[in-house]
Amino acid sequence: MDKPEVERKWIRCPHCGAKHSLYSNAAECHGVFLLCTRGCKQEFELVIEDGVQLNPDDLATS
Hints:
The chain is mainly β. It contains 1 helix and 5 strands. A 3-stranded antiparallel sheet has the order 3-4-5. Strands 1-2 form a two-stranded antiparallel ribbon.
């Protein structure tokens, strides 16, 4: 059964912490690459599992 959308969270750059867009707690994605347009201008992969954004450091230890 799918989780109902009850809240929205900010996508944050894992390098500088800048806010980007919103996603719902029911989101799941990987393989999406974003360019930080606010602070550091670095590229990062957006990985969302179970409605939580994972940082690259979290993925390296898994």
